[in-house]
Amino acid sequence: MILIDGKSENTIPADDRGLAYGDGLFETIKIQNGRPILWQSHIDRLVKGCRVLGLQEPDGRKLFEECTQLTAGSEKGIIKIMLTRGSGGRGYKPDDTCVTRRIVSFHRWPEIPEEYYTHGINLYKCTTPVTDNRLLAGLKTLCRLEQVMAQREWAEPDYAEGLMLDNNGLVIEGTRSNIFVFIDSKLYTPVLAKSGIRGIMRDIVMDIADGLGMPAQESDISHTMFIEADEVFVCNSIFMVFPVAKYLDKQFDSFVQTRMIMNSLESNISRYE
Fold this sequence. Notes:
Elements: E1 2-4, E2 7-8, H1 17-21, E3 24-32, E4 35-36, H2 39-53, H3 60-71, E5 76-84, E6 101-107, H4 115-118, E7 121-125, H5 145-151, E8 159-165, E9 171-174, E10 178-183, E11 186-190, H6 200-211, E12 216-219, H7 223-227, E13 231-236, E14 240-247, E15 250-251, H8 256-268
Parallel strand pairs: 7-8, 7-14, 11-12
Antiparallel strand pairs: 1-2, 1-6, 3-4, 3-5, 5-6, 8-9, 10-11, 10-13, 13-14, 14-15
Helix pairs in contact: 6-8
């Protein structure tokens, strides 16, 4: 089921600027036990994005009501919220009369193999780079062509995620996740000042790690550093944390420190609600 501006529909006008230019934002929210997880963090990021793009800020209460309407009777699933600038303006410059359009949809929960958590995942090296844009860095805009192209690079089911670098060869993120590495027992995550998405789970993992006495440092991570890491894991707000078992020819045999974070995250996730 899909709600467009609160009405049960499945079409938008052909002149919608989200369709024409990717002019908008989105959030993907996990539904567990019938309720949205990390709701306020997602809404806060959405509001921040609206301020950067100059979109009308959403009514959080109204969005919550619409999400509740769509998830009624469902214990688990995914809610996707999209905000577009709406319709107006033939070219890039929008009309002053544009009214933000909100699209809320519910999706079935994807089956995630348990072995991804127990034995780790295989990570693919994508050739599609993440481009620099300081203004949009950290935001979840509707323009995700780089990630679309990156995920089209592999068809083998052995890979659960792909690694994306920037044009300078620095590690930035996964196609749908943030990256963490342990090097000499110290935890690092890429700087996202120029590109990449600042994930909700990334911030939580950094807080969890700090509480465990292993504070994560934001740092430039070269491809060589990545390959030489002792442990690697990826995270997002849907699957939370996957240890990485293999990347190229490198086998990561230890998940000891990653497991500490996974266990603490599972025990303390309710603190972030």
